[in-house]
Amino acid sequence: MFALRAYAPGEPARLAFDEAPSPDLGPRDVLVRVHASGVSPGELDWPGAWLDHDATPRVPPIVPGHEVAGVIEAVGSDATGFAVGNEVFGYIDVHRDGADAEYVAVRADTGELAPKPSRLTHPEAAAVPLSALTAWQALFDHADLQPDQRVLVHGGAGGVGTFAVQFARWRGAHVVATSSERDRSFVSELGADEVIDYRGTRFEDTVAEVDLVLDTVGGDTWSRSWDVIRPGGRLVSIAVPRPPDRDEADGRRAVWFVVRPDVRQLVEIGRLLDAGLVRSIVSDILPLARGAEAYGPGARRSGPGKVVLSVAGD
Ligand SMILES: NC(=O)c1ccc[n+]([C@@H]2O[C@H](COP(=O)([O-])OP(=O)(O)OC[C@H]3O[C@@H](n4cnc5c(N)ncnc54)[C@H](OP(=O)(O)O)[C@@H]3O)[C@@H](O)[C@H]2O)c1
């Protein structure tokens, strides 16, 4: 098969479009014929991507791309719950080879794959799993966001931010988001009640007393966010590098977390997508052979949302 393969951490220049062996199908695996994969531009810097489950270093090259949409091609002898021909999508194990390839092997019993939302194309579906699960877990697992609460989403036009704005709005919260001036009207159409241009305005000059801040940016955005949270409120961060956890006497609390696969949440997100209550935002679709352009700090995209690699041409 053909695959995009990384030869060293953090070096997108060393990503090559190679002929590679097809993945081994373990007894509890399914083999997915990949139609599209979602790109996390910083993935080659994730330490976990270069380690096995037991923390031993993996032998390069490795295949990136841990969001997949595709069709089940084969089912391992002990794998249950999937049949050849099922359309699936999911956020898949970062310690194994990923979906920037014609085929990927995925464990069937770890909640990584769910039925693909039927109204979505494969590229639209591939843009969902990691970003949407992260937004969902931040708002609902780590902060228990309630209707009528006020939430500030930093990076509202990003992969995670576009879902966070939509989920918070769906839950009935008042949503304030930061974005570039270019993306302001887009983020407002997604459901933000207020959008702040992060280059032109210091958010703390116009926002106060929010129940929750979701920080997808980090650095001084994280530290400045403290001043806009009401006593008892939450600062939930996913930014890299990890900021410290923090507890204040007035009940404000900061947490950082790493997203995990969750099939029940993915199915619920799929329902919202199929019902048209939430949209998948794809900024660009590149062919797999040009996938290296989507990785690394210099990777450019033409608008809000995620870059997706088209593997099967749809
Ligand atoms: N911990 C976890 O489990 C987890 C999960 C998913 C992602 N992440 C990490 O979270 C971060 C965000 O992920 P993502 O996929 O949403 O990234 P992304 O798609 O690159 O989005 C980031 C967004 O933030 C905007 N931005 C940049 N600087 C800003 C600032 N100072 N204030 C407000 N917005 C700003 C960017 O706008 P411009 O276009 O103007 O630059 C962009 O729209 C990444 O570092 C990613 O690695 C962590």
Quickly list its features.
314 residues, alpha/beta, Quinone Oxidoreductase, Chain A, domain 1, Rossmann fold, 2 domains, seven-stranded mixed sheet, 6 helices, 16 strands, binds NADP nicotinamide-adenine-dinucleotide phosphate
SSE blueprint:
Elements: E1 2-6, E2 15-19, E3 29-38, E4 67-75, E5 87-91, E6 103-107, E7 113-115, H1 122-126, H2 129-141, E8 150-153, H3 159-171, E9 174-179, H4 184-190, E10 194-197, E11 210-215, H5 220-225, E12 229-237, E13 246-247, E14 253-256, H6 263-274, E15 282-287, E16 306-310
Parallel strand pairs: 8-9, 8-11, 9-10, 11-12, 12-14, 15-16
Antiparallel strand pairs: 1-2, 3-4, 3-6, 3-16, 4-5, 5-7, 13-14
Helix pairs in contact: 2-3
NADP nicotinamide-adenine-dinucleotide phosphate (NAP) is lined by residues 42, 130-131, 134, 154-155, 157-161, 178, 180, 198, 216-217, 221, 238-240, 258-259.
Protein architecture, described:
- With 314 residues, the protein is α/β, with parallel strands linked by helices.
- The protein folds into two domains: 2-128 and 280-310, Alpha-Beta Complex (Quinone Oxidoreductase, Chain A, domain 1); 131-256, NAD(P)-binding Rossmann-like Domain (Rossmann fold, 3-Layer(aba) Sandwich).
- The chain is 18% helix and 28% strand.
- Strands 3, 4, 5, 6, 7, 15 and 16 form a seven-stranded mixed beta sheet that branches. Strands 10-9-8-11-12-14-13 form a seven-stranded mixed beta sheet. A two-stranded antiparallel ribbon has the order 1-2.
- Helix 3 links the parallel strand 8 and strand 9 (174-179).
- Helix 2 packs across helix 3.
- The protein is globular and about 55 Å long.
- 48% of the residues are buried.
- The chain binds NADP nicotinamide-adenine-dinucleotide phosphate.
- NADP nicotinamide-adenine-dinucleotide phosphate is lined by residues 42, 130-131, 134, 154-155, 157-161, 178, 180, 198, 216-217, 221, 238-240, 258-259.
